[in-house]
Amino acid sequence: MDAVFPITQRNGEPYHTLSDFTRLFDQVKSGRYLLGQGYGWHSGVHLTSKMVPWGKGLRPIQAMLDGRIVAYRIHPDYQTTTYKDQKLRYSNNFVLLEHEISAPDQKDEEIFKLYSLYMHLAPPSDIGANASLTTRYKLLDDGRNVRTFKFDSEPKKSKLEHKVSMSKGTVLEYLYAEEKATNTYAIGNEIYHMIKCRIIKLGESPSSAERKMKGKIVWFASGKKSKFNILEDPSVMVPEAVSEPEWMSESAARKRDGSVVALPLPMPPVDMDAGHIKVKAGDELGYMGLHEYSNDVAATKKEDNRIHIELFSVAKPPTF
User: Fold this and answer.
1) pLDDT truncated to tens, each residue of the chain (320 aa)?
2) CA 4 to chain CA centroid, nearest Å
3) What's the distance, CA 60 to chain centroid?
4) pTM (2 decimals)?
5) How far, in Å, CA of 101 to CA of 222, rounded?
6) Do 111 and 60 touch, CB atoms closer than 8 A?
7) How many CB atoms lie within 10 A of CB 191?
8) How many whole angstroms from its chain centre is CA 266?
9) How far apart are CA 237 and CA 154, in angstroms?
10) Which residues are CB-neighbours of 35 under 8 A, at least 6 positions away?
């Protein structure tokens, strides 16, 4: 059985060690396992956009293990509550996965079942064309350049490695969309704002140089008069919607009325795949949902995007 961490790094690469991933929690004061901030039982961990800004609309939450979806809830939009006349939005959407593990030596036929829960997933209204954050952009004309710099450094003339003209239809992924981060760089006699991107799709007629750029981290001139006047010019680029996770297009995942849907157990000899949604480790499950809250008497509104993750079993784990 394959296993991955529930989110990748900003550049889309996986975390390679446990210490690399758990370092995300070093400065976190809440959302930890066992005890919450109020010293009450907390059965999972939180990932938030304050810890991983790329978890908001850029990098999806992914299944940690191979398995199947046994239950889910999809509200089409955010839920709301009121605190001192302040309207607060949140998501209670979730997906529950079941996993089966057998003894490593294969001599023992005992199967151990465990479950992973992913709560507060963003609703369909915050994915795709209507998402609150745009992370992908498509070029509408030819001749726009991307640049790479030695050692993946910030834009500097002395470290310029490649400059490649990209064709119409190229899709760029803005890696710092949540923070709106840019770096300045001189092109000719003009100062431009540059954004760090990844090329995720080549254009209509890519050159050999362009083909080498697919998947690479590059810098793109997003603006001259302002930070984003090029990026937001509809004659140059248009937002490219992020697709919903594949599992949400399955016939068994059609309900989007906020009800909890439990998928039936596979019962031989009928079709074992009927009405079930299989997932592999690394498959997309959704994105962190918006969480608006207030923790003072003045009802000051705060927000982040977050996911609550649990890993548990009903039976006592066997000794393998």
Assistant:
1) 789 999 999 999 999 999 999 999 887 766 665 556 665 666 688 999 999 999 999 999 999 999 999 999 999 999 999 999 899 999 999 999 999 988 776 666 778 899 999 999 999 999 988 899 999 999 999 999 999 998 777 888 888 999 999 999 999 999 999 999 999 999 999 999 999 999 999 999 999 999 999 999 999 999 998 999 999 999 999 999 999 999 999 999 999 999 999 998 766 655 555 567 999 999 999 999 999 999 888 888 999 999 999 999 988 887 76
2) 14
3) 2
4) 0.89
5) 48
6) no
7) 10
8) 30
9) 23
10) 41, 42
Look at the chain and count its residues: 320
Query: What is the Cα 272 distance to its own chain's centre?
Result: 30
Single-letter amino acid, residue 20: D
- CA gap 3, 67 in Å, rounded: 11
Give the pair of three-digit tokens for residue 155.
């834009």
Tokens at residue 212, please?
Answer: 């080498």
The residue type found at 142 is D
